[in-house]
């Protein structure tokens, strides 16, 4: 009798412990083995962290363009390239890597297997789900890392955790980390330019603009 009571009590404790555990956070791994948190929004899975891969999906290395001359050279030759903001590895651990559009568009694949770079329309759909581009950034921006922490604006209610990784101009100049998050789409605008999305520390707007394909922006992937 005592053994039955003990067994029942032990089973109850184990059951309560198990159901109180939080659900495992979904992750995706890239070809280098980096793991990224993901979030489901309106039926689509998005990465909740910026991409930081060093190889294309087939294993070929992406050019690491450190100097301004190397970065500009990659753009001229339409070669995919990546860098850390200000070439500091510590920035990479927070903001991931910056990629030019030629890496984004390379047929060897930048996104992990089964994933892709979001199209211009994917970004529109994301903004519409959160009330349109005027309000969407309030729900998408991380509550930390932004300059002045975007007081009373960033809620990250979506779990998307958009980060202000800044960008690198085609001439190699680094700008605006902590102030602006710029994210590639896979959609071309005109020759030499592609669409991207831009969020700032100053407002709740998710801007849609085009930019030079040689610029270095952050990347999120979608499935």
Automatic annotation (TrEMBL):
Entry keyword set: Signal
Ranges of residues in domain Fibrobacter succinogenes major paralogous: 39-223
Pfam families: Fib_succ_major
Keyword Signal appears in the UniProt entry: yes
Signal peptide (UniProt feature, chain positions): 1-25
Record-given protein name: Major paralogous domain protein
């Amino acid at each position: 009798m005592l053994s039955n009571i003990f067994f029942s009590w032990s089973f109850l404790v184990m059951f309560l412990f198990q159901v109180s555990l939080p659900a495992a956070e979904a992750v995706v791994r890239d070809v280098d083995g980096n793991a990224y948190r993901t979030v489901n929004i309106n039926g689509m899975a998005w990465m909740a962290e910026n991409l930081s891969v060093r190889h294309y999906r087939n294993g070929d290395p992406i050019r690491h363009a450190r100097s301004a001359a190397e970065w500009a050279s990659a753009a001229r030759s339409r070669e995919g390239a990546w860098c850390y903001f200000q070439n500091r590895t510590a920035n990479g651990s927070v903001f991931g890597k910056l990629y030019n559009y030629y890496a984004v568009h390379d047929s060897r694949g930048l996104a992990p297997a089964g994933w892709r770079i979001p199209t211009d329309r994917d970004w529109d759909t994301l903004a519409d789900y959160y009330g349109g581009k005027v309000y969407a950034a309030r729900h998408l921006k991380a509550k930390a890392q932004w300059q002045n922490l975007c007081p009373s604006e960033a809620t990250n209610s979506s779990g998307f955790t958009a980060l202000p990784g800044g960008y690198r101009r085609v001439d190699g100049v680094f700008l605006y980390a902590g102030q602006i998050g710029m994210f590639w789409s896979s959609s071309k605008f005109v020759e030499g330019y592609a669409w991207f999305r831009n969020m700032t520390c100053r407002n709740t707007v998710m801007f849609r603009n085009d930019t030079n394909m040689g610029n270095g922006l952050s990347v999120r992937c979608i499935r």
